[in-house]
Amino acid sequence: MPELPEVETTVKGLNLKVLNRTFIDVWSDAKKIIKKPKNFESFKKEIKDKKIIKIWRRAKNIIFDLSGGYSLLIHQKMTGHLLVGKWKKQNGKWLPEKKGPLNDPYNRFLHLIFFLNDKKMLALSDLRKFAKVELWETKELISSKEFKLLGPEPLDKNFTFEKFEKALENKKGKIKQVLMDQSIIAGIGNIYSSEALWRAKIHPEKNILQLSEKELKLLYQSIKKVLELGVKLGGESFSDYRKVDGTRGNFDTERKAYKREDQKCHRCKTKIKRIKFGGRSAFFCPICQKL
């Protein structure tokens, strides 16, 4: 699932490519992706002629603020990513007009396409079709329960160590699960929680109540560093995620724990292990990250 660095990278790319453009039409062969309004024809009618005024991120959500007081929210979920380009339909399939990154096999699962007034297209590629697309009145979105429940942004300048401590205050459970809880801290998922915990030398199953002040400070610093690096390198393209031009992110070169089972730890050369809890995998070094 695209996490904070991937979503932030997508937002930056979209701001360069589609800001101030206007939606003129929309196509989909997976209309259930549209969650609000649930009727696709209503969605199509309401978004037509809306101009993109601002594009921003909240947690793992991409928000397009539109003319007329509306906002388009897209959550890419497990395998979704947004692409900008030009496609033509051949034998029932959308194919890129030109050779290039958009021809990457992971970019071929187009299930939603917005047609823009500069003849470009904004497409959602989503293998498993789990993505969520909603059209809100902006005021309603900002005051929605979903938004109000989101935790603080870890890359916000105001997210100090004291605010980090406050976010974790009175929380219980294994630290990895706590870090991935969007109501506690926004934007962190399986990839960057594994990477931050490796950097801080903290076992993913360690109970949050057992963390010392020193460990908390190391974890805070590690979260900041790994997320900043993820954004700088354009995200992780180990699996489905691609940037809006279809190219891969480069965080893979910095991956120290995630998906490195049985590979040597970059610090102590012990083999990285994988465990499962809470329905998710955790990758860690059994020597550097002792429980």
Structure in words:
This protein has 291 residues and is α+β, with helices and mostly antiparallel strands. The protein is built from 8 helices and 13 strands. It has helices at residues 4-17, 40-47, 138-142, 145-148, 161-168, 175-179, 190-200, 213-232, and strands spanning 23-28, 34-36, 52-58, 61-66, 70-75, 80-85, 87-90, 93-96, 110-116, 121-126, 132-137, 273-277, 280-284. The strands form 4 sheets. The chain has a 5-stranded mixed β-sheet. Strands 1-9-10-6 form a 4-stranded antiparallel β-sheet, covered by helices on one side. A hairpin with a 4-residue loop joins strand 9 and strand 10. Helix 1 runs parallel beside helix 8 and helix 7 (190-200) crosses helix 8 (213-232). The two termini are 27 Å apart. The model has no long low-confidence stretch (mean pLDDT 97).
The coarse silhouette is globular
Question: Can you give the helix content as a percent range?
Answer: 25-40%
Multimeric state of these chains? single chain
What's the number of helices?
A: 8
The overall strand count is 13
Gyration radius (Cα, Å) is 20 Å
Uncertain ranges: none
Strand content: 15-25%
C-alpha end-to-end distance = 27 Å
Largest sheet: 5 strands, mixed
Q: Output the structural class.
A: alpha+beta
Mean pLDDT: 97
Strand order of the largest sheet: 2-11-5-4-3
N to C succession of SSEs: HEEHEEEEEEEEEHHHHHHEE
